[in-house]
Design a protein that fits this description.
The chain is 45% helix and 15% strand. It is an alpha/beta fold. It folds into 2 domains: 204 residues, TIM Barrel; 60 residues, no CATH class. Helix 8 links the parallel strand 6 and strand 7. Helix 1 packs parallel to helix 2 and helix 4 crosses helix 5.
Length: 295
């Protein structure tokens, strides 16, 4: 059993719907996936039902956007297997509202920079709970301004340091607030693609705050960083996960669902993590009670 624990659908910035993505997993022989749309839990229940039809286990998940205010960097936290999703919903709505605001500003900037109708961008975002950079690029492709989603134009438009670009940074929640929200929801928190945003300098503080795991296997992670992350995870007894960060046509490169994933042992550790923690807590409580009785 292997699992691709990082997949996106049309509900955020992917190009496949829930049914299409799960059918693809089944065809590719991936028997366990997590749908981790950005700040969106809308597909959780439906995905589980569709997964049962295709004989694919769908783990409840979400990718929560956050900011490391100390270093001014984006940080993404993958949350899995939460007991009380309603405790994450508020955070999702807050982040989504900020993303929507930033997306609208970027759309207006794009339509000023190019002869481009905002309706076309909105059409490209149809089915999504928000408006993403990929939707703007898709509209620019349709108008012939570029031949690809990513490349020189994308880098120029969305470079935060380019004064002539159109990027607007959403005001996401603080990363420690996100870790706390996942903990309150009874979920498992995993630092997504640490190498992508160079989040190595905050890992120790996140562990102190209650981080449960690190995403080790990811398309953007070099073998050198992979080894570094495995060493960190082993040292701090953290869970290790992996996934393709699948977005369909909006992928950052040429790979498909299941090309990157979580090995069998690590997947089993994730699925059994909460049971193991509860067992350890029971043993600790029993030991403390025995000590209290014996004085």
């Amino acid at each position: 059993m292997t699992g691709d624990l990082h997949c996106h659908t049309k509900l955020s910035d992917g190009t496949l719907g829930l049914e299409e993505l799960i059918a693809l997993a089944s065809k590719r022989g991936v028997d366990t996936i997590a749908i981790t749309d950005h700040d969106c839990l809308a597909g959780t229940v439906r995905a589980k039902i569709i997964g049962e039809r295709h004989d694919v286990k769908v783990i409840p998940g979400v990718e929560l956007s956050a900011i490391d205010h100390e270093n001014g960097k984006n940080v993404h936290i993958l949350a899995y297997l939460f007991d009380s999703p309603d405790r994450i919903e508020g955070l999702c709505h807050k982040n989504s509202a900020e993303r929507k605001k930033a997306g609208q500003y970027m759309m207006l900037k794009a339509t000023k920079k190019f002869p481009l109708a905002p309706e076309l961008i909105i059409k490209c975002a149809q089915g999504s709970t928000n408006l993403y950079k990929q939707h703007i690029m898709h509209a620019l492709m349709q108008c012939g301004y570029t031949m690809s989603i990513y490349g020189e134009l994308y880098e120029s438009l969305f470079d935060p340091h380019n004064l002539t670009g159109i990027y607007v940074q959403p005001k996401f929640a603080d990363v420690f607030e996100v870790i706390e929200a996942v903990k309150d929801a009874g979920g498992i928190s995993v630092l997504a693609h640490p190498a992508l945003y160079d989040n190595f300098d905050i890992i120790d503080k996140l562990i102190e705050a209650g981080l449960n795991g690190i995403e080790v296997w990811h398309p953007t992670c070099s073998k050198e960083n992979e080894a570094r992350l495995i060493a960190i995870a082993k040292k701090h007894k953290l869970l290790m996960t992996g996934g393709s960060d699948f977005h369909g046509m909006y992928n950052h490169g040429k790979w498909s669902l299941g090309d990157y994933g979580t090995p069998k042992q690590q997947l089993s550790e994730l699925l059994n993590y909460k049971t193991r923690v509860k067992r350890q807590q029971k043993k600790l409580s029993a030991r403390q009670e025995a000590l209290a009785v014996n004085g």
